Amino acid sequence: MSIQHSSQLNTFSSSDSISSPSLSTSNIADDNLEKLNANISTNKEFSQAQGPTDNIKNIEKNSNDENLKDTTSITEIKLDDGKTNLYPNLCKTNFPFKTSDRLLDDIYCSLYFINNQDTGILQKPPIAYSRERTDLQLKEYEPNLLHLMDQVTLKTKYEYPSKSCPNDALITVFMAVLYEDEDLLDLNTPDDIVDLEIYHVKITIKSKKQMELRYNVGVDTFHLVSYDELHPFDKQDIHMENKEKTADSAIYISPLTNKIIMIEILRPEFNEDVLSTFQLDKIENRIKNYYHHGEGEKYTKTEDTTDPDGASKSFDLLPVPTQVQCLSTFFKIIKGPLVETTVTNVSNVTNDGTIINERKCIPCNNKSVITKIDPELLTKYLNFTIERENEDEYFLPPLLINYMDDLDTRFLRDSFTRKCLEIIVIGNLSQKQFYSASSNTHYFKIFQLSSSQVVWYHLLHQHISNTYSFIEQLKSQLQYNTDYHFIDLSCYYYYDIKSIIKNYQTCCNLDPDNMEIYYDALTYVANCKHNQQLFVYCSSLDLVGKEALDGALITFGIDPQEIVKPQEITDDAILRIYENIKQSIFYKGNNEHQVSLMDLKNALHILAKFKKSSFLKFIVNHEPYNNIIDAYYALDLEPNMKDVDIIQTAYLIKVSDAPGLQLDCDRAIYSLAFYLRSLPLFNFLIAQCPDFNLFYNTDEISYDDALERIGVNSEDPDNAILDHFYRKWNGDENLVLPANFIKLRRDLLKIAIQRKSKLLEHFIETGNIDESLLPAGNWPAGLNNIGNTCYLNSLLQYYFSISPLRNYTVNYQKTTEDLLSNVTISKRRIGGREVSRQEMERSVQFTYQLRNLFDDMIHTPYKCCTPKKELAYLAFAPSNVSVEFEDEEDCTTLVAKISPDQLENALEMGRQQDVTECIGNVLFQLETASEPLKLEQDDEQYDLIKQLFYGKSKQTLVPVSTELGSEENTNNMDNKPVSEKFERFLSLLVDVSDKPRDIYDALDSYFQDDELLTMDEYGQVKRVVVITELPDILQIQIQRVYYDRERFMPYKNITAVPFKDKIYMDRYMEHKQDGEGDKDTFNNLKLQYGQLKQKLKRLQETKLKLCDTNEVGLTVKDALLETSKFLKSDLLVEELEMNEDNLEHTITTLNEMAKTMDLQSKNIVNEIEALEMTLDTFFDDSNINGMDNFRKHGYSLFAVFIHRGEASYGHYWVYIKEKKSSDTRAIWRKYNDENVTEVDESEVFNFTQGNTATPYFLVYVKEDLELEIEPLKRIINLQE
User: What spans are recorded as compositionally biased (Polar residues) (predicted)?
Assistant: First the structure.
């Protein structure tokens, strides 16, 4: 072929993407087909902050969908007539939809999502990213979306006619660039252009004149379609770029005008390899090579000795082109094929060889090419070829002329256009950043890039009457247009009300699972626009928004993300959660409970409205008043009015005078019935408000369920059922909600109806028990609380259950004179001290008071008794406080002269006392009123109290050198004597501050023998404590109250200390050489046991360190893994240019360290579990190292004292076990003041962490004395 060449640069080349070779027709077709046939689906994986997670519709479309098939009338048309709607069902089937404004905003923000989430948003519904879009606006995210205004030098917009509708349809292609401002922050030197990422926006629009004239809509909507859903007519005109180039793309079609908008976000045309050739060192090297390479080197200058521009041949004075000059040369080369208009062929050559309109090519030795660009770019990236003519070589550009008819050529031409546009942007940035205005680098200034949005509306043929005013309007409304509520509805603030409502309805129709979200958006838009029409429309919908619903679910402790369909939550489940939360609010005694209860009630109202539940609405409407004063005020009553008849009369008068206030009056009666726990008021409420019977009728429950809820069985007599009901009604601490009383009444009514019980029916009607219908009871008597004496009541029940003590007390007949007549009384000592006559008189009277109470508890025909105030006073007041008694002849029990102030002071003293102080005071008085069985060596009185409750221990101080196994044992045994001290103990005190595993672990701390002390006479000694004598009844006090030295206040430690029904004390007993077992062997076992515990402690400390977190909440292992994950990111290699091998080595090391730590953690956990099991069973073996078993001194648990509350306040009760014989099942009862109820042993052995109802006193009895515990002792004279 003939080639015309020139030393001047005129028109040059182009290519496919810089990152890939030229495209063949088959490659383009295959790639397009693969891309365009891809199904479109929304991304369901986004955070709650962005929108719903599980409810976004999967909009995968199938080309075989019947709704998408061409109608018969359309398929009969050979060409599109431009008037037929090709997509009649689009608005009913395809989701998402967006307006043109929303699509433009998607383009504007797409780079953020592509770069941060590796996925675009063009195909996503707005709710999938609306919240993130709002956050971007708050962060002032402003990317650059620029288009070229000058369409003469470079044509970035062109049109071509439709193949299927040539007379009416036109296809417009528009190209722009998109990049983030963050890219500019890295431009510190000209060499940093390699880090620029200039994305491209390609918009293809197909519009039909007749359709647009027919449907002149205000705000048109466009629905997402896949390529397969395009009508065959449109498939002839709409083609997408190769998928490797595409970062995001979507096709949207208007269901009215059939306008097609295809948006493609394309990756940069130039990669780092290309841009790096324009770095300064590369430019300089090309100049060096050009002037100094030897003969025969390719592209070297050998024939000239002077520079054509007159520069000196000295290299230091050679002109080096700037980066902008090199880029401008590159731009001209790429632009050349775009402006070429003719093609050389045989017809262009005359007979004499003259060439007409020949193509212009670039000589391969052209200085501008060789020095300003890397010539390899032309063939490697721009589809240039090298042609020879004679001995010369030329770069021949690709042909881009026939782009209207040839699809491959069109794609290639578009690629060259994008390359030019990209070079313009890069050149402009380089020019502005690094070259002054005076420098000779002004080439790119001729190209004007604009960010105006007006071009977008012109592309869509949307008429804007006043461009400036419209743009200013958009700017002023930006805060609304970028708010996620507006985005969810694909709305802009300037839309008319009809369009906003239409968008809302379309969203709900196409995406009904997220209707609540769209309702939220609509109400927000209505509030922003202050539009009454929107307000009225929102109210007419009677819906609950997603935000309100989620807030209600969160208030109820339900994670909205875990609930796929909230409407499927049952009313009973909602009410159960509501009651539990409300109960906890009452239980905690929150001073701000009104706010919390209000939020809870509002949440229930929202759920009732959402579910359209008449039952839940009834609950909300009839909710009792939070403040009882409001209930009295509603009925015009004085506060504290308790007369049921007056309350009922006030209600009837108020409702008669103001019928519209009946609901308020119903709530007031409900509140007062609950406040007073009045069964007659509940009956009155149900009679006046039949809705209570509608929702709480007996037909909805079964007889067995009613029995179970009251806590009885079908064999129980009516009086037992009534007793259980009465205890629940008046004493169940969990019965704190009004509805629970309605349900409890309903349960009793069900039982009464089933049994036809007159006793139960009378009680339900009147709230009173007809005693004539009651049989004699066979149940322990309760004790009325006479004022903050609950732990005294527990203590009295406990002493009553010990039959030797009870029998001794009930039969007590001594007087002070009787005691003084005993010669041993004068010598006796109690608690190591002498006892005065005054103390004897007081103690005798205390014992009489206790005798009378025990006698009453045995013989009363009633369910409970009331302790005398004298008994409470004498129990709490210290024994050294004198008490005067009134003289009464022929009466052993005297009345104490106690003033109300003295009694109150004593009760206050009882509140402040530790329970063990009260125990000591009570037992001291019982001992003082008793005659000794014998006097021990120190004249200490030995009596029934000592026998039952007191043991003996021995404390030994052992010099370290005399320990078993010490090398100096023999030499120093005589020189350093052992100090021994014997003591009596009433109870063993255990500490829970170290969180013991169980009661044995706690006792180990009490008897620990590894405590070292330093004494002047002995030096370093070890303290050893052992038991030498065990009591019949073993009492263990759990220390729970401690003092916070930082806050200067006491606090309660609620650490759970597990215990069992049996405990064996052998391990804490003294072992003599010739006695029970071999002493040395036992000491060795204790030493081994101690060593195992020390090992366990070290392992637990190591585990704690491994699990410890840093300031951001990461463990060491997690920190290693997070660091490894960070090092794997492409940012470090691509942006920071870190060495991949070094990174890989570091990542491998971190992962291995994490695996090692994980393995170490698992090994430690396994070792701790094994060690704990060993310790738990260490003394359980039947024969340990030749020793007898450690189960000789066994005790059985029979009483557990409970305190619920904090250190300075709370409530007390006691569980006491009854075992009538060795063959019968043990019964546990709860003694809670006047209420005595049977409980399951699981309630006693409840070691749930965080439970404030904690055991603080455990009582065991020797196994062979278990039957001496007799809590039930009733002798009722039926004739009385």
Answer: 1-12, 44-56
